# Entry
Amino acid sequence: MQPLLRLLQDGQFHSGEELGAAVGVSRAAIWKRLQALEAEFDLSIHKVRGRGYRLEAPLSLLVSAASGHLGSWPITLLQQVDSTNAEAMRRLAAGAAPPFLIVAEQQTAGRGRRGRNWVSPFGENLYYSLVLRITGGMRQIEGLSLVVGLALLQTIREAGVSGVGLKWPNDLLVGGRKIAGILLELSGDPADVCHVVIGIGVNINMRVVARDVIDQPWTSIRQVLGAQIDRNSFLSRLGAQLERYLELHGLHGFAALREEWEANHLWQGRAVSLAAGVQVVEGRVLGVDDTGALRLDIDGNERVFSGGELSLRLRDDS
# Structure
């Protein structure tokens, strides 16, 4: 199926003869192949007599990910997977040795924080899981998701989106709409030797999603800039930024990056509500501490919060 998609990704019409020659089948068999592509990857392919076949919208398929390495990390490109994080965990359990990177053209069960669904259409966004071996105890993990956020922030800015900023702990927003998210999962003993799966989802070229599928405002780089983005270039730039920020974090800890993170936090100084299960506290964001925990001013007293199940929201009166 891949040669067909490579030809069709430009969004232009291609004749049945051209497509048949590319995959070694007859013109009559092409339509069945294309129908199978539509069903497998939830694509829409238009057929016009005398002009041929084209995708409803162009795609930017990942090519660089098929090279075997991205920077210093071995990389695997999957056409379809339930979740790149879940696949990373399975490979760890089967004995795969970090570091390694998994990217996919589509996820069928993508996950965000707190069990939320991450919508993952074929060939439009970035679904990315980097697996690292962590030694040296908790210091190597403290603030890690925030550091990944900084790398992602710089990559999105390099793509041309100037209005992007961070929301504690794991989201990136543009105009109040989510454009990217981070999900870290651990395997092993964080006090000794463990593995961390750094899951990243970025809305790159996503155009339309049914209203009842995503439960929060969202946008994509394409929506912001009004043009399709080269996902291969984005993937390469993200790898370079991650290597740079992870090296800084490994050498100096999050404390060395704390000021940069706070300078890019969209809700710095804002009135917020912080939910932890059924408990909700209200306060004003002071920033983060040297471990990446959130600092809130609550009735004149500073309190610090950390944990994966916390949910931060702007107060209506902020």
Summary: Helices lie at 2-8, 16-23, 27-41, 84-93, 144-158, 221-225, 231-252, 258-263. The CA atoms of residues 50 and 188 lie 59 Å apart. The two ends are 52 Å apart (CA to CA). The longest helix spans residues 231-252.
